[in-house]
């Protein structure tokens, strides 16, 4: 019982600090209008930025993929799980990002989390002395932080968006293998990494630049090719990670880089090798996602998204809370205190608006926030409704900060 007592105490501590997280059960497909725990809600939480997660063509492609390839892949890629669908998808992805990488090849992963673990561990393992150094941006996604740990490399953290600080760190490093890693769009703030500056610094110091474009792929650039297209970059130093469960609406991720980098991952990346290949039908469905992203429909959806972002940015007028007005679909409202952020999310929820409260350790202490994410599937009326509700709530909220959401959890 001692072990369980310890757990119970830790869980109670989470409650005391308003850090207990809970899951809500969605009964309907991922879309702005969802039914959650039996209630109709307007949601601003998903990363389904283009509204492809329930797109009729993608649904039909998944059905077709299951008919063609069955459901399970049956084995890892290196044993027998690598299907024609995976191969076609990798070829299509490589072609998609080819303008930005030398000798581009792509490798499909089950998740972005695994792709990031794979890239950092395998690149670090390529250092024959075992002395690779990883230079990690301060606000990087958890999967990059974990990948750096798993790589057992020396890790140096450089300040947010600070290419000059990175330059100094690289100059001071005597490591042969230097790996710089950054989110392109920061997942909790929505701002962009200064990739052209970072790449110039990396090329000067002979470092790899690993770009995690989880929130840029499908969204940035005229063709939705992501952050590299947005900044018009091309380099043999780039290792690109795109995820396919966000704008692409399905699931999984890919790494694109010079063919030799990809071959090394196939040979050495444990998160690639020692896991069952994702269902081939997912890869098959992703061919249709990719088609939509790169075509006229994708362009129209991105344009609509830009209009929604502009509407939110110009419409939101906050006094106490701070809107981090980004140029992307991620639009945080920083409240600060954990329990107040939680109370704000609960109050919006009461009104039928689903906006998540993000608390530490996902964001720094004292910066708990509402994280609004927009989707091209939202209408202008949806955004207007959100703006009105946030304005009314901020005015009210000055008065009190109840921690009611937790009491139900303690009772549960
Ligand atoms: C979501 C996300 C990931 C993980 O991707 P999954 O496919 O969901 O595992 C990695 N990096 C960033 C920046 C993300 O936002």
From TrEMBL:
What this protein catalyses is:
6-carboxyhexanoyl-[ACP] + L-alanine + H(+) = (8S)-8-amino-7-oxononanoate + holo-[ACP] + CO2
Q: Which domain of life is it from?
A: Bacteria
Q: Which UniProt keywords apply?
A: Acyltransferase, Biotin biosynthesis, Pyridoxal phosphate, Transferase
What is the E.C. number?
2.3.1.47
Q: Aminotransferase class I/classII large domain: from which residue to which, for each copy?
A: 41-390
Record's keyword annotation contains Iron-sulfur: no
The record's listing under NCBIfam families reads: bioF
Function, please?
Answer: Catalyzes the decarboxylative condensation of pimeloyl-[acyl-carrier protein] and L-alanine to produce 8-amino-7-oxononanoate (AON), [acyl-carrier protein], and carbon dioxide.
Which HAMAP family did the record assign? BioF_aminotrans_2
State the similarity comment.
Answer: Belongs to the class-II pyridoxal-phosphate-dependent aminotransferase family. BioF subfamily.
**Name of the protein in question:** 8-amino-7-oxononanoate synthase
Organism per entry: Undibacterium arcticum
Gene that this sequence comes from:
bioF
